[in-house]
Design goal:
It is built from three helices and 15 strands. The chain has about 210 residues and is mainly beta. It folds into three domains: about 80 residues, no CATH class; about 60 residues, Seminal Fluid Protein  PDC-109 (Domain B) (Ribbon), CATH 2.10.10; about 55 residues, Carbohydrate-binding module superfamily 5/12 (Seminal Fluid Protein  PDC-109 (Domain B), Ribbon). Strands 2-1-4-5 form a four-stranded antiparallel beta sheet, with no helix packed on it. It starts with a strand and ends with a strand.
């Protein structure tokens, strides 16, 4: 079988079938492996053919050499990975970001975060409130002085009231169910509302 990369370079591969996860080349030495590795760039794998079968948007993420064969691991980029190449997720307002959380990196220890940076933690999107370098014990779900959950009520999808922090209060006009989806809808009539309709009824009205 032959693989032809985007730049027109053609190599023979030892795959028994058209690959989707592995490319196997017969190499006599390490120099040959390095030469192939330099060719398997993201650009060259954005479009390639194997025996006239077309493939696109693949990336190489490592390889191994064993005697006279070298195998390179490849995978096709997901829709979300492909999107990240062309959009800057930091430009999205919260109203849009909350619908595409997979665009955002997972929170990690020993990372520098700037004010406004958004991360995922346990599937929830958070926004950085203070610039800092993350440490064990400072996860977004417990470090409320450093992180606030991104809460943006969708006017067409009224959520159940959830206790906010002072950093992400309900604003005037925000609507919630309280206490469950089967209960009445309340509208906040004040800004910076961190109280429930039960705790501070003066801040809410039934709609």
């Amino acid at each position: 079988m032959n693989i032809t990369l985007k730049d027109g370079t053609t190599y023979q591969i030892d795959n028994s079938s058209n690959p989707t996860t592995l490319l196997i080349f017969r190499m006599a030495d390490l120099h040959g492996m390095l030469e192939i590795a330099e060719k398997l760039t993201e650009d060259n794998l954005s479009k390639f053919t194997i025996d006239n079968v077309k493939y696109q948007n693949y990336v190489c993420y490592g390889g191994s050499w064993n005697e006279d064969q070298v195998a390179f691991n490849i995978h096709q980029k997901s829709e979300m990975e492909f999107m990240k190449d062309y959009v800057n997720e930091d430009d999205f307002p919260d109203e849009e970001a909350i619908h595409v959380p997979s665009l955002y990196d997972v929170w990690k220890v020993e990372q520098s975060y700037t004010v406004g940076k958004r991360v995922r933690f346990h599937g929830i999107l958070y926004k950085c409130l203070q610039a800092h370098t993350s440490q064990t014990g400072w996860a977004p779900d417990v470090a409320s002085s450093l992180w606030a959950e991104v809460l943006v009520p969708d006017p067409e999808d009224i959520p159940v009231w959830k206790q906010p922090e002072s950093s992400n209060p309900y604003m005037k006009g925000d609507k919630v169910h309280y206490k469950t989806l089967d209960d009445p809808v309340y509208e906040s009539i004040i800004n910076n509302n961190v109280w429930s309709p039960e705790a501070y009824p003066q801040g809410w009205k039934v709609v």
